Amino acid sequence: MALNNLDTLYRQVIMDHYKNPKNRGNIDGDAMTIDMNNPTCGDRIQLQMQVEDGIVKDAKFDGEGCSISMSSASMMTQAIKGKKVEDAVKMSHAFSDMMLGKDIDTEEFDLEDIEALQGVSKFPARIKCATLAWKAMEKGVNED
Amino acid sequence: MDVSAIKEQFPILNQEVNGHPLVYLDSSATSQKPVSVIEAVNNYYREDNSNVHRGVHTLGTRATDKYEGAREKVRGFIHAESTAEIIFSRGTTTAINTVASSYARANLTAGDEIVITPMEHHSNIIPWQQAAKATGATLKYIPLQADGTITLEDVRATVTDNTKIVAVTHVSNVLGTVNPIKEIAKIAHENGAVILVDGAQGAPHIKVDVTDLDCDFYTFSGHKMCGPTGIGVLYGKREHLENMEPVEFGGEMIDFVNLYDSTWKELPWKFEGGTPIIAGAIGLGAAIDFLLEVGQDNILEHEQKLADYAMEQLRTIDGMTIYGPEKRAGLVTFNLDDVHPHDTATVLDSFGIAVRAGHHCAQPLMKWLEVSATARASFYLYNTNEDIDSLVDGLLKTKEYFGNGFK
Q1: Is residue B158 domain-shared with residue B299, that is, in the same domain?
Q2: DSSP label of B309
Q3: Is A103 helix (H, G, I), strand (E, B) or coil?
Q4: Do B180 and B88 fall within a single domain?
Q5: pLDDT exceeding 90 applies to what percent of chain B?
Q6: What are phi and psi of A50, to 5 degrees?
Q7: Structural domain tally of chain B?
Q8: Which of B235, B259, B292 lies at the terminal end of a domain, its last residue?
Q9: Cα–Cα distances in Å, from B220 out to A44, B87, B283?
Q10: What's the Cα-to-Cα distance from B130 to each of A102, B235, B281, rounded to whole Å?
Q11: Same structural domain for residues B324 and B248?
Q12: Among A37, A120, B90, B117, who pairs with B94 as Cys (CB 3.0-4.6 Å)?
């Protein structure tokens, strides 16, 4: 493998989200807060969400981690904002399937930027980085 | 020391990873195994496999002789007085836990202190946290200097008459700091405390003489010193081990079993409940033979040269931060500016270079360093300057990839 193979992992859109993350910070006012970390590598995320009438009104994250975990968190918050909670959970399951290398129904979900993370499935050691934010979101809505 | 001849004895190193010759720089996590160790384990299963200490038959005797022969090799390797003081365990973690569960719980009461350092691996922190919680003892830390070392003045200031146990690592798995064990042991003893040494990163690289160090407990793992995984050693002074209760009960460790009470075998077997890790112990014995044949002084000298060369070369890279003291064991922990260590490790892996990235099971130390994770290159007797050149080359490409490539 050489650098050009790395391009399947590190797509430009991932690097854009890493360098200029969306929804990074804290929500003012009432919000559920979920802390999650990846104990094997030290990545950690704090996700905040405001859910009203079954809709994710707002989502923000903060944390420390690699380009994959932080860009995935950025993309995830972008994707779930304004979505029904049940659809957000469905997207999370679809994302997990994508990480396992399974084909997913892109008709049902408009994954937009998230599709760029498809290459992570080829790097098994990095899958947990990509799923961290999604797991935090699922934990939050399950506890709500 | 003929490194290329040594390297040839490690079949795993002769392969390509991701289209590049493997450069293995993760020996602090686990070392590779020479043919002699692989064959010793293989031959045991092919020719001698049997349970130990029970069968009257020939294979049982052969297995027992080899298993107990390995114990004698370990005794010689760390210069213990008797094989009664050599207890086989699953690894360093289990060995420390045995002392924390048995010795600590029996000898600590509220008001007593356990003293450790912030550079400890989780396996030399958590057992003491738990022992402190169970007994009401206090856990105290010897502070670190800015370069990641400890001073004897601070050891003296932290260890008091109330201190019952001092537990320190011989060599830091992150900083490469080599701690002055003999001097720390002296201070511990002057205060009536015992000392346990986490030798996971010590025994593979530095000649250990437990009698000279005068440590009460010394623990290490086979797999970091060319031996198999799943085997480790708890050395303890006989006077302590005699008075300690076993932590695992069952077959192999008993003397007489009655309906409501039992008695234990003599040392060291009273701490080895269940069928022991026979093949692992034999493999560890072969690893000791191998290390002694190469020569521990030669290995240490080679690793020091590699560490010096690595420090010198890595410093030529802009945006490089190296953690730990100048004088160090054979490992370098670092970060590149603006590149997360996982990303660094992934790019290096694409060039066949294996380094560790993460918190290295030392989260309190990461907090002290004010980083969430670091990358680490660690060396052993089979590494060369060329391996370090490959690392530097890989790091320059990493920088280029994450810097220029995405601006």
Answers
A1: no
A2: H
A3: coil
A4: yes
A5: 95
A6: -115, 120
A7: 2
A8: B292
A9: 31, 11, 15
A10: 43, 22, 29
A11: no
A12: B90
Q: Which residue stretches of B21-88 are H helix?
A: 35-43, 58-78
Same domain, B149 and B288: yes
Q: Which residues of B touch A65 (CB under 8 A)?
A: 340, 342, 372
Q: Which two tokens stand for residue A63?
A: 């944390």
Indicate the residue of A12, A44, A125 with minimum beta-carbon distance to B406. Answer: A12
- Report the CATH number that the domain containing residue B139 is assigned in CATH: 3.40.640.10
Interface of chain A toward chain B, CB-CB under 8 angstroms? 1-3, 5-6, 9-10, 12, 15, 19, 40-44, 64-68, 123, 125-126, 129
Identify whether residues B184 and B207 lie together within a single domain: yes
Mean pLDDT is lowest, of A3-12, B69-78, B329-338, B355-364, for A3-12
Per cent of chain B over pLDDT 70 is 99
Q: What angle do CA B382, B290, B380 make, to 5 degrees?
A: 25
Question: Are both B288 and B300 inside the same structural domain?
Answer: no
Residue B128 lies in a domain: yes
Q: What is the pLDDT of residue A8?
A: 82
Residues 6+ apart with CB under 8 A from A43: A37, A63, A64, A65, A66, A69, A129, A132, B342, B372, B373
State the Cα–Cα distance between residues A134 and B404, nearest whole angstrom: 30
Which of B86, B83, B180, B164 minimizes the C-alpha distance to B128? B164
Show residues of chain A in contact with B20, CB under 8 Å.
Answer: 1
Mean pLDDT for the stretch of residues B300-309: 97
Any domain includes B353: yes
Six token digits for residue B4 = 């290329």
d(CA B301, CA B296): 9
Identify the residue with better confidence: B187 or A125: B187
Total length of chain A:
144
User: Are B126 and B256 found together in one domain?
Assistant: yes
Chains A and B: how many Cβ contacts under 8 Å?
A: 61
Distance CA A42, CA B360 (A): 9
The whole domain housing B394 covers: 3-26+295-402
Contacts of A125 in chain B (CB under 8 A): 346
Residue type (1 letter), B148: G
Whether B22 and chain A come into contact, CB under 8 Å, resolves to no
ipTM above 0.90, yes or no: no
Please report, for the domain that includes residue B313, its CATH number: 3.90.1150.10
Residue B342 located in a structural domain: yes
Averaged pLDDT score across all residues of chain B: 96
Strand partners, B232: B89, B221
Which of A106-110, A118-122, B150-154, B358-362 is predicted least confidently? A106-110
Model pLDDT for residues A90-118, shown as the tens digit of each residue: 999 999 999 998 887 767 777 778 888 98
- The residue from B246, B275, B292 where one domain ends is B292
Interface test with A, best of B18, B343, B366 (most A CBs within 10 A): B343
**Contact call for residues B83 and B71 (beta carbons, < 8 A):** yes
